[in-house]
Write a structure and sequence with these properties.
The structure is a single chain. By secondary structure, this protein is α/β, with parallel strands linked by helices. The protein has 2 domains: about 180 residues, 3-Layer(aba) Sandwich (Rossmann fold); about 110 residues, GMP Synthetase, Chain A, domain 3. It is about 40% helix and about 20% strand. The strands form 2 sheets. The chain has a 5-stranded parallel β-sheet with strand order 3-2-1-4-5, sandwiched between helices. The protein starts with a helix and ends in a 13-residue tail after the last strand.
């Protein structure tokens, strides 16, 4: 039986043995990276430098919320604003695997720059088992390259340390609860962020539509769960599809894109079932999204695909 307390003790001892010089850690504010950061902070203390990279693909108000949350648990955080660099690097790139590899490589390049600033030798990551399993390698097929695994450049100079590598999401949450971390209750969010929820061209305007649609889905589902109308899903979001259809705004023809709403129940993210959302809640979501982004989106659909055969994210 998995013991969060035992895992924390073993991880602290292993990190003290492995990390003998300055380390940087990627903190996204999610449960995986936050658990890894707190354990590393206990293990190596002043040798640890926590870095949050704003790629431009974060959710609404996320950067500010993460800064506040990580400061509240005593982590010394450096915030790097790299929005322009990411949009430039991803201009014209629409293929999902290529997106993830570009994001992963730029992610490492930014951390190498931070490495030069602080003289770091190690990069600690919150990689968990599904990340490297789905990224393929050996006899495993590549389902999707996670940016922190399959997207890493071969010529990187940082030594990667992954204290959570053998854990699944439910086990990481158990560790987070043991450490009394607020992030333990946050729903999963992909490392590449909205870049893999905005299918097609990654322009600032299209990503902003995705951001607003995701915020509305989160707000409405959380409010419905608080009212007792439904159980809160394990993961829930919106994705913008590069699929256009004819619609009407007022008495005017509109030719807009499509937003898909996705909500699933799962334990560890390796498999999932779609969540039954009441039609009344879906109606509110549809109305709010189409009103908020008039002209650019005119059709809302709900994804009822399980994993497998689909994945939880669309890319």
């Amino acid at each position: 039986m998995f013991s969060p307390e035992g895992f924390v003790k073993e991880s602290i001892a292993a990190l003290r043995e492995e990390v003998d010089d300055i380390a940087v850690i990627a903190c996204s504010g999610g449960v995986d990276s936050t658990v890894a950061a707190v354990i590393a902070d206990i293990a190596v203390g002043q040798l640890l430098h926590c870095v949050y990279v704003d790629t431009g693909f974060m959710r609404k108000n996320e950067t500010e919320e993460i800064q506040e949350m990580l400061a509240g648990i005593g982590l010394n955080l450096t915030v790097i604003h790299a929005e322009d660099r990411y949009f430039a690097a991803l201009e014209g790139i629409t293929e999902p695997e290529q997106k993830r590899k570009v994001i992963g490589e730029l992610f490492i390049r930014i951390f190498e720059e931070e490495q030069d600033e602080v003289g770091a030798k190690y990069l600690i990551q919150g990689t968990i088992a599904p990340d490297w399993i789905e990224s393929g390698g050996g006899a495993r097929d590549t389902i999707k390259s996670h940016h922190n695994v399959g997207g890493l450049p071969e010529d990187m100079s940082l030594v990667v340390v992954e204290p959570l590598r053998d854990l699944y999401k439910d086990e990481v949450r158990e560790v987070g609860h043991f450490l009394n971390l607020e992030s333990s209750n946050r729903q999963p969010f992909p490392g590449p962020g909205l870049a893999v929820r905005c299918l097609g061209d990654l322009t600032p305007a299209r990503v902003e539509v995705t951001r607003e649609a995701c915020a509305i889905v989160e707000e409405e589902l959380e409010a419905a769960a608080q009212r007792g109308e439904m159980e809160l899903p394990w993961q829930y979001f919106a994705a913008l599809l590069p699929v256009k259809s004819v619609g009407v705004h007022g008495d005017v023809r509109a030719y807009g894109e499509t937003v898909v709403v996705r909500a699933v129940t799962s334990i560890d993210g390796m498999s999932a079932r779609y969540s039954p959302i009441p039609h009344s809640v879906l109606t509110k979501i549809s109305t709010r999204i189409t009103n908020a982004v008039k002209g650019s989106v005119n059709r809302i659909v709900y994804d009822i695909t399980n994993k497998p055969p689909g994945t939880i994210e669309w890319e």
